[in-house]
From TrEMBL, chain A:
Keywords: Coiled coil, Disulfide bond, Endoplasmic reticulum, Signal. This is Glucosidase 2 subunit beta. Gene3D superfamilies: Mannose-6-phosphate receptor binding domain. Residues 279-289, 400-414 have a biased composition (Acidic residues). Residues 207-245, 257-273, 297-315, 330-360, 368-393 have a biased composition (Basic and acidic residues). The keyword Amino-acid biosynthesis does not apply. Residues 531-626 form the MRH domain. The keyword rRNA-binding does not apply. Residues 207-455 are annotated as: Disordered. Residues 1-31 form the signal peptide.
TrEMBL record, chain B:
PROSITE patterns: GLYCOSYL_HYDROL_F31_1 (PS00129). It holds the Pfam family Glyco_hydro_31_2nd. This is Glucosidase II subunit alpha. SUPFAM superfamilies: (Trans)glycosidases (SSF51445), Galactose mutarotase-like (SSF74650), Glycosyl hydrolase domain (SSF51011). The keyword Nucleotidyltransferase does not apply.
């Protein structure tokens, strides 16, 4: 059967078209309702209608006779009695569509003058003549289906590889995590020891310093005592006591030496705070709250404005011009630059005229809110927030790394910037991937490079351990004696280095832990999506969808967040991003990415079907599912089988 | 950082303004000097008397003179000219203007092209004036004939005009100036020292002719309520605005304005103005008063007892509603309509301003609109979704974004590269497209329309004589001067297929923003001292601007179709006469239950004042309706004369299939209900076209004696046969429905019978809102659905015969080609169906020369309320029997499809265009 279809090319075509004409005419002559009482009934259903002379409405509401079947009068409100006419509003018409797949139409399409079935069987009252297009349509459909199956076949192979890779990758991640954790434990101990030692040294140093000072003071005192009283000395002593106390009680490392540290700590806290509000709600709310009061003021002054305007003549009230100035500031941005110039000129020269134009815009904006569309305007607020509070976004990767170090201990922050998942081992694989998919790339490629160096070297920890041991031993020797300056520096340096290494490890641990918590799909087929972005250019916008992270719309240097990664939906048919930048007069932006089987990871068809609700399609081998392939194959088989009678007829 | 704060505060400023309408941006009566002056006058302040009465050209003509001779100061009151004319069917026209022979500074504006030319044919040439001294008066009054039952009285001193019944107590019907509040400010010539400027906010009105307002009181007798004077989002029966017990002290304002997010309960003026008021009282009698004036108007409905201390004695024993009418400019050109039946009044008004245009059939179907269907792909997608869900619709709409930068008559070449192809694809399914064309023209030297309009001087001028420059969608814009007939004709020519590139015969037009909306103008409109052709100030013509624009567009479409295609133009601004040019909608409403509720009184009011083809945006323009509200809105909206879903571009998509299968089903069923009733609606549109009686009517129009209906604006009649009760509350599944009259009512959903004259509590499940067919009526239906109305042309009819207590019923069916003007030449079918003595008869209502045939059959006749259980019927002239059996009331409907069985005459086989009888055996 398959052979027949495939060979029906040039040699067959003439014969075929002749036969098709025959076929069409057969259908035509058969299709008047009187000739075919069973018009519009599917083969599976024929039995139901043929079994007895009295037929029941399927909803049980009534019975009808065979004469009433397809008599163009609706007896059953569910349409049972009129499968082949338009008489029942809820009726369904079955077109056989030989050569293509059968379809079921609403009865409203029967004899409505439009050819709906490719075999033309829905139009039999002579209003229109419908050519039979089933063969061509069927052929095209089958070709499409075959192509699709081919895609699935190939995609499935890639998908299996992905799953294998995911397995390896996950194991590696787990192993790394395990290793890192044990290293962290050891390193933590070392750092503690170094810290103790450092503090001891510093205490000694401090003592020495005090001692020295005291001596110097005594010396000075001795000198000055000859000339003056001794009040000064008392003061000095007080001061130094205070310093001592604080160092002892709090045990803050290196207070005396690293003056920036306390400052750093508070900075650290601040970032932590922001991190607690990954969706920026808090800062945004703050930002809004303030101007609201400004606005209230403005509104309150309004009646007063009127008053002023009423009494004075040409000059608008000062408040008015201020608000108008404000408005103007905002508005001009959306216009072309020469407009801006013009407006600016107007600001200084003709306030009256400006206010009119400006008033027009203001009133227009109530309906349009259009300003918000343009990233340089009203909608800036979220963007401004980003720049203020999201200094760790991938826009500035260097800052990302720095921040990472500081926030490493806040585990459950869901914010970006911490996806330091780059694995050198995967590089080759990633490279390979980058080749076949132009639209995807790694987002945080340069994260944790130094860490990976260290982690890749199995002996680094031993080295450190050794070094520390040496230091501790050597420093110990000098414990009671005056501090050797170089030794002390060595301790401090070693402490700083180890501590920073520890921070990095901890950061890596937390990002790994977070990564492992992600939903990579039932077979981990989305593992490779982690840390990757897919890009699509549409008009002036570049859309960037970063899995497990965020989605953005970029135009030049301005960036609008379409949403943060939320989850997969509808059994992995969609990726959902929510809580994007707020829309003027609308919802927070959001994005739904439909996933479908494809050989490459490719982002297409980004659209905004409803205001600020975006949609896109991502082709990916991860969605080339076996079940779906089977389904398609069955469908094709069925279609091919269907051709059988027709081909049979030919021969 | 500072600039950052700036930006943020601006955003908040903008979003704050977006929350609700800015009351302070619009003038209150106190901020409107003429209104404030008129309102502060006391009864009896008018000192004018009537003199020099004569009959000239069939009119009563006289002078209005100061009672006491003028002092010798400069403020001389010049005599005014008064005229009273009488027209057939009980219409009195009363006019007052300045005396042109005394050389006023300029002619006051008389609104042209509103009164239909045929009206003059109705004039009764007065032959004589009778004199009569009203009891208590010192001087005589002039009395003229109006009709067999009525006469008009011009009382000389004190000056008063009224219509009274001739017989019996000579009861008054309507009177003008019975409280002596009449005032007529005469145009001034500016001399040094005069400062007539008025300021509002940042705007200054130069007012070169000084105060020129007119005010007077009008009283309606035997009146329980007054109605009309749209457009306001208020109750149908107008609440008093002044007097004892009235807190809200603003008059009803008639000033066409683009009001952002209007309130649902406010006397504030909206997009349109019709200064026509109707009163109705316990006696069942109705009368009306109409003031043809296009300037800003303010109207007070005065609460009982407002004049307690005035000392003026009016006829007692006649319940009366007093009103105060105030206008900024123009002349007194008023019409008294005597009624006495509600339908008489609307017919009388229609004979002055015209009946509503006969719409094309497609326009009575469902319209799908949104700001904006983005591009051709979006259009194709939405169109195909309707098919996918088997939801019929007739028109897809494109809002402003389809244009190239808000330049009307152009297309965005990226989004809509193939407009003709797109329209043809829709047309293949019998569907149309509507694009928006607004009156503001982008001031862009490279825009052909602007170039032409500038070159030809077609723009409205500012007070200094330059082309007026205001701000609207495209930014800096000028406005076509629609007052000039020449310019209107030029404008109409823009719609030819040649001039409007990308238009096809299936494209129709939407006129928005025609109040006109001027974003940076005073009260978001044009300055009052802007100038139209002939030196007419905008203040004088303001309320009619949008009307002329609508007219020009509509006439343009007629021209485009070479007079063969009925135009369809939707307008937002309205004025008396708008009904002749197309449909209107109630503007930018909001997705709230209260806005759904107020849509009914708004539509009832519009219908009562001539504009029957109206509707509110389904779902509410602003905001996102919850699915329940949207479903309820579709269920009510299916009975709006104009049935369109529309939404603001900030809202979520809300096409009927987007809220889950169940809600899709509910909305589809609502839309199906409308399509099923299209033959009935179309017949009613024809009735409105012939008589002016609206499609959707207040209950009291059908039941004038039933007092319980007078203030009911939650239920409404569709024609004389259907009563519909909306559901306006969230989560409600019950409704209390008052069913008026003595006859029974049949539930459209299940055929259940309810007695009239009672309030019934009944189920209102999510599937439907309560709707009833009145016993004694016959309603034609088409029970098969198609993609669009035009595809239903050949489908058979169903007649639903609801028998009354005497086993009788009657109804009509009107059919024409649904699109051309051939019906005017008799190409239509108009049948009358009467059921009496067990026989249903179809007779011809069309004149004998009428010629249109139809192959359509009546394939089902449903009998409701039949007293016996007949088994068959005999059909003549076919001379054959038809079976009668029990069948469903409605095929496939969500409610009626199951359970209920009604008597059904199966396949009588009669043609819709022929005489026949069906006798029940």
């Amino acid at each position: 059967m398959r052979v027949v279809v495939l060979s029906s090319s040039v040699s067959f075509s003439l014969q075929l078209s002749f036969l098709l004409i025959l076929l069409v005419s057969v259908i035509r002559s058969n299709s008047s309702p009187s000739n075919d009482p069973f018009l519009g009934i599917s083969p599976q259903d024929e039995k139901y209608y043929k079994s007895s002379s009295e037929i029941k409405c399927k909803d049980g509401s009534k019975k009808f006779t065979k004469a009433q079947l397809n008599d163009d009068f609706c007896d059953c409100s569910d349409g049972t009695d009129e499968p082949g006419t338009s008489a029942c509003p809820s009726g369904k018409f079955y077109c056989r569509n030989a050569g293509h797949s059968p379809t079921v139409l609403f009865s409203s399409r029967v004899n409505d003058g439009i050819c709906d079935c490719c075999d033309g069987s829905d139009e039999y009252d002579g209003q229109v003549t419908c050519p039979n297009t089933c063969w061509e349509a069927g052929k095209a459909a089958r070709e499409n289906l075959k192509k699709k199956i081919e895609t699935y076949n190939q995609g499935l192979v890639i998908r299996r590889q992905e799953i294998e890779k995911a397995k390896v990758g996950l194991e590696k991640d787990a192993a790394e995590l395990k290793k890192l954790k044990s290293e962290e434990k050891i390193l933590k101990g070392l750092v503690e020891q170094l810290k103790d030692r450092k503090e001891q040294i510093e205490k000694v140093e401090e003592k020495e310093r005090l001692q020295k000072e005291k001596e110097e003071k005594e010396k000075k005192e001795a000198e000055s005592a000859a000339h003056e009283g001794k009040g000064d000395t008392e003061e000095k002593t007080d001061d130094s006591e205070k310093v001592e106390e604080s160092t002892n009680d709090e045990g803050v490392p290196g207070v005396s030496q690293h003056d920036e540290n306390p400052h750093d700590t508070t900075h650290h806290d601040e970032i932590g705070n922001y991190k607690d509000y990954p969706s920026d709600e808090e800062p945004a709310a703050e930002a809004e709250a303030e101007p609201t009061s400004i606005l209230e003021e403005a509104t309150h002054t309004n009646p007063a404005d009127e008053h002023v305007v009423d009494t004075k003549e040409e000059t608008p009230s000062s408040e008015d011009s201020v608000t108008e100035g404000l408005q103007n500031d905002d508005d001009t941005k959306k216009e072309e630059s020469d407009e801006v110039k013009k407006m600016d000129d107007l600001v200084t020269e003709k306030k009256e005229e400006l206010s009119k134009e400006e008033l027009g815009r203001l009133v227009a904006s109530r309906w349009t809110g259009e300003k918000s569309d343009n990233p340089t305007e009203a909608d800036d607020s979220p963007k401004v927030d980003i720049q203020e509070n999201h200094e760790h976004t991938p826009i500035t990767p260097h800052e990302v790394e720095e921040d990472d170090g500081f926030v490493s201990d806040s585990d459950d922050t869901s914010d970006d910037g911490k996806y330091s998942d780059h694995e050198p081992e995967d590089d080759s694989y990633e490279e390979e991937y980058r080749h076949d998919s132009s639209s995807s790339y790694k987002s945080d490629a340069d994260d944790d490079v130094d860490l990976s160096e260290t982690t890749s070297n199995p002996t680094w920890l031993e080295k450190i351990q050794k070094t520390v041991k040496n230091i501790l031993l050597s420093v110990n020797l000098f414990q009671t004696t005056p501090v050797d300056k170089s030794e002390a520096d060595r301790v401090r340096k070693e402490y700083d280095e180890s501590n920073s290494k520890l921070n990095k490890i901890q950061s890596r641990i937390s990002s790994l832990e977070k990564k492992l918590k992600q939903d990579f799909g039932p077979e981990k087929e989305f593992y490779s999506f982690h840390g990757r972005c897919f890009e699509s250019k549409q008009g002036k916008y570049t859309y960037k969808v970063c899995s497990y992270k965020e989605a953005t719309q970029e135009e030049g240097y301005s960036k609008t967040r379409l949403g943060d990664w939320d989850k997969f939906e509808n059994s992995y048919q969609f990726m959902s991003y929510t809580n994007g930048d707020k829309c003027w007069n609308g919802p927070d932006r959001s994005l739904k990415v439909k996933l479908r089987c494809g050989l490459k990871n490719e982002l297409t068809d980004v659209d905004e079907p409803s205001r600020c609700e975006y949609a896109a399609i991502l082709s990916t081998p991860a969605r080339c599912l076996e079940d779906k392939l089977k389904e398609l194959q069955q469908k094709l088989e069925k279609l091919m089988n269907q051709d059988k009678p027709q081909n049979h007829d030919e021969l | 950082m500072r600039s950052l704060l700036f930006v943020i505060s601006l955003i908040c400023f903008c979003s704050q303004t977006a929350l609700s309408w800015k009351k302070e941006e619009f003038r209150s009566c106190d901020q409107t000097p003429f209104c404030k002056r008129a309102r502060s006058r006391t009864p009896g302040a008018c000192s004018l008397i009537v003199g020099d009465v004569s009959i000239t050209d069939g009119d009563l003509v006289a002078k209005l003179l100061p009672k006491t001779p003028n002092q010798d100061d400069g403020d001389q009151i010049k005599p005014l000219v008064l005229s009273l004319s009488v027209y057939r069917d009980g219409i009195v026209r009363f006019r007052v203007d300045e005396d042109h022979s005394l050389n006023p500074p300029k002619k006051r504006f008389r609104v042209p092209d509103v009164v239909v030319s045929e009206f003059e044919e109705k004039k009764i040439w007065l032959q004589k004036v009778a004199t009569e001294t009203i009891s208590g008066d010192t001087s005589p009054s002039s009395v003229v004939y109006v009709s067999d039952g009525y006469e008009a009285v011009v009382r000389h001193d004190p000056f008063e005009v009224y219509v009274r019944e001739k017989s019996g107590d000579r009861r008054r019907v309507v009177s003008l100036n019975s409280h002596g509040l009449f005032d007529f400010e005469q145009l001034g010539k500016k001399t040094e020292g005069d400062n007539w400027e008025e300021k509002f906010r940042t705007h200054t009105d130069s007012r070169p002719f000084g105060p020129q307002s007119i005010s007077f009181d009008v009283s309606f007798y035997d009146s329980s309520f007054v109605y009309g004077i749209p457009e306001h989002a208020t109750s149908f029966a107008l609440k008093p605005t002044k007097g004892p017990g009235v807190e809200e002290s603003e008059p009803y304002r008639l000033f066409n304005l683009d009001v952002f997010e209007y309130d649902h309960e406010s006397p504030f003026g909206l997009y349109g103005s019709i200064p026509f008021m109707v009163s109705h009282g316990k006696s069942g009698k109705t009368c009306g008063f109409f003031w043809l004036n296009a300037a800003e108007m303010q109207i007070d409905v005065l609460a009982n007892g407002w004049d307690a201390e005035s000392g003026i004695s009016l006829p007692s024993g006649q319940s009366r509603i007093d009103t105060l009418w105030m206008s900024e400019a123009g002349i007194v050109d008023t019409f008294f309509f005597v009624g006495p039946e509600p339908k008489d009044v609307v017919k009388q008004y229609a004979s002055v301003t015209g009946t509503s245009a006969m719409p094309q059939l497609f326009a009575t179907g469902y319209h799908q609109c949104r700001w904006n269907y983005k591009d051709e792909e979006d259009v194709a997608q939405v169109d195909s979704k309707f098919d996918e869900h088997d939801i019929p619709y007739d028109v897809l709409w494109l809002d402003i974004e389809h244009t190239d930068g808000k330049r009307y008559f152009t297309w965005d070449s990226v989004l809509f590269p193939h407009p003709e192809e797109m329209q043809k694809k829709l047309a293949a399914k019998g569907r149309k497209m509507v694009t928006i064309v607004d009156p503001h023209i982008k001031r862009d030297d490279s825009y052909f329309l602007h170039k032409e309009a500038t070159h030809m001087g077609h723009y409205v001028k500012d007070s200094s004589g330059k082309d007026f420059d205001g701000w609207c969608w495209p930014g800096s814009s000028s406005y076509i001067d629609m007052l000039s007939p020449e310019i209107r004709e030029w404008w109409g020519g823009r719609f030819s297929y040649k001039n409007y590139a990308g238009s096809t015969p299936s494209l129709y037009i939407w006129n928005d923003m025609n109040e006109p909306s001027v974003f940076n103008g005073p009260e978001v409109t044009m300055p009052r001292d802007a100038l139209h052709v002939g030196g007419v100030e905008h203040r004088e013509v303001h309320n009619a601007y949008g009307y002329y624009f609508h007219m020009a567009t509509s006439d343009g479409l007629v021209m485009r179709g070479e007079g063969k295609d009925r135009p369809f133009v939707l307008s937002r601004a309205i004025f008396p006469g708008t009904q002749r040019y197309g449909a209107i909608w109630t503007g930018d409403n909001t997705a709230e239950w209260e806005h759904l509720r107020v849509s009914i009184p708004m539509i009832l009011t519009l219908g009562l004042t001539g504009i029957t083809f109206s509707g509110a945006d389904i779902g509410g323009f602003f905001g996102n309706p919850e699915p329940e509200l949207l479903v309820r809105w579709y269920q009510v909206g299916a009975y709006y004369p104009f049935f369109r879903g529309h939404a603001h571009h900030d809202t979520k998509r809300r096409e009927p299939w987007l809220f889950g299968e169940r809600n899709t089903e509910l909305m589809r069923d609502a839309i199906h209900t409308r399509y099923m009733l299209l033959p009935y609606f179309y017949t009613l549109f024809r009735e409105a076209n012939l008589t002016g009686v609206p499609v959707v009517r207040p209950l009291w129009m059908e039941f004038p004696q039933d007092e319980a209906t007078f203030s009911n604006d939650e239920a409404f009649m569709v024609g004389d046969g259907l009563l519909v009760q909306g559901v306006y509350t969230k989560g409600t599944t019950h409704a209390s429905v008052y069913l008026p009259g003595k006859e029974s009512w049949f539930d459209l959903r299940n055929g259940k019978t309810y007695v009239g004259g009672k309030t019934h509590k009944m189920d209102a499940p999510e599937e439907s809102i309560p709707a009833f067919q009145k016993a004694g009526t016959i309603i034609p239906r088409k029970d098969r659905f198609r993609r669009s109305s035009s595809q239903m042309d050949n489908n058979p009819y169903t007649l639903v015969v609801a028998l009354n207590s005497s086993q009788e019923a009657a109804g009509e069916l009107y059919i024409d080609d649904g699109k051309s003007f051939e019906f005017r030449r008799g190409a239509y079918i108009h049948r009358r169906f009467v059921f009496s003595n067990g026989v249903l008869t179809s007779t011809n209502l069309a004149p004998p020369q009428a010629r249109l045939s139809s192959q359509c059959l009546i394939d089902r006749i449903i009998l409701l309320g039949h007293s016996s259980g007949p088994k068959s019927a005999f059909v003549e002239p076919l001379n054959q029997k038809a079976e009668i059996e029990m069948g469903p009331l409605r095929m496939g409907g969500l409610v009626a499809s199951s359970g209920t069985k009604v008597l059904t005459i199966r396949k009588p086989g009669v043609r819709v265009d022929q005489d026949w009888t069906v006798k029940i055996l």
